[in-house]
Amino acid sequence: MEKQPKAKIARIWRGRTLPHRADAYEAYNYEAGIKPLIDKALGVQTFREDRGNDTEFMTISYWESIEAMARFTGGDPRRIHHLDRDREYLIELPSEVQILELRTCHGKTS
Dmax of the chain from CA atoms? Predict the structure, then answer.
């Protein structure tokens, strides 16, 4: 059995939508954005925070290297992949992602 590479990089994307559109965006984002990402990244987590005036979504994908992430983005690992309907759903289009080096993992989620 081939050993899976360890995650060394986390790529964090954030986007906000209006509360009445949040459920629809969550479903759309999963189908159009998360499902294809699952096959490329080592792991993917999605988060949602419902607030008074907006709902924020965060997607964290895990990668073995900056190079692996760059292959996914087609060059610049900070490049955003806007989905076809993001303009329709999101309050503003995110202009960047956050890239963090994973230093340690503890507990049951590691």
Answer: 49
Angle (CA) 71 76 77, round 5°? 70
Q: Give the length of the chain.
A: 110
Structure tokens at 37: 């990402």
Q: pTM for the full model?
A: 0.89
Amino acid code (one letter) for 2: E
Q: Dump pLDDT digits (tens) for 45-66.
A: 999 999 999 999 999 999 999 9
Tell me how far apart the alpha carbons of residues 22 and 41 are, in angstroms, rounded to a whole number: 25
Rounded-to-10 torsion of CA 110, 34, 41, 80: -120
CA-based Rg of the chain, rounded to a whole angstrom? 15
| Beta carbons of 26 and 57 less than 8 angstroms apart | yes
Token readout for 105 is 């993992």
Amino acid residing at 36: P
Which residue segments constitute the domains of the chain, with CATH numbers given?
9-101 (3.30.70.100)
